[in-house]
Description:
Elements: H1 2-21, H2 28-35, H3 41-76, H4 88-101, H5 110-132, H6 139-163, H7 168-176, H8 184-203, H9 205-212, H10 215-220, H11 225-247, H12 253-265, H13 269-302, H14 311-329
Amino acid sequence: MSRRFSVFAALVVVCACVELAAGRGMSPAMVWDVLGGGGDATERHILFQLRLPRLLVALGAGACLGVAGLVLQSALRNPLAGPEVTGVTPGAVLGAVTASGLGLAGWESPLAVVVAACVGGFTGAGLLWLLAGRGPGDPAQTAVHGVLVSAVLGGLTAMVLLVAPGELGSVVQWLVGTTEGRVWQHWHLLWPWALAWGAAAWLLAGPLTLLRCGDDIASAAGLSAARARTLALVCAVALTAGAVAAVGALGFVGLLVPHLALAVFGADLRVTLPGAALVGAAVVCGADAAAQLVSQLLAVALDSGRLTLPVGALTACVGAGLLLVVVRRTPSRTF
């Protein structure tokens, strides 16, 4: 197990190095020179004030989504219970977009965005809770209710454009997900939030493991399934809201990363929850680095120097493709 953690830690380091070297304005040789103490003031500003906080925010958001997805899937006993399809991410996006449209928050005020995203995320989770019932319910039925709630919240987000059409750029950023323009203020707000709620989720590893086995087994072991599930959902919503407030909605990260973490680190959530954080960080960081490299290639091919591919668009396309492959390769599995 320690070897597996070492491999993924090394993968995170590799992805981080690639992301620092990617992007416009500086070549990899310039990045290496600045890291060695050289470079001019502009190069140092690009690396330490733009690229480094962007890298750290990508790592933190990926870790939050990985842990949140695993907590949701364990608490609801549903392999499709990612933040994206349970109303949590759409609710957080709706809260952030609405606050931006009303002028109460924006990319320049991350703290207000975090509060608005949390309110929206808990609202989305509450709607699912009301529709699916207070018990665990049928996993397939929960997934259907989650899709319905997400669709309704997505429609409400689109309606914000009718009220505040000038917020179109902001809405698109929230809906797609991007790490562009992340600064140290975003990181200083994200890391304590992620650390606190991640630690709370890890403390729930034992109850979550019992919940994965079913409420009957959990009750036989003396666990209050309803209370444990409520606490787990609070942790998942808080982690998702923190990630959405930092980078917007990153599609399929919270849905697929838990499956990869379980396949690599096993069913013991005391180990797999930190593993999911590591895998999520590697996935988002690697996707952001790949998005920057693809943006440069597309800019050259299309002769457009300002073309930028959001990381959320890449994770959505790749994640959807991977999910389709998994479903087609295991047609007998119930999702």
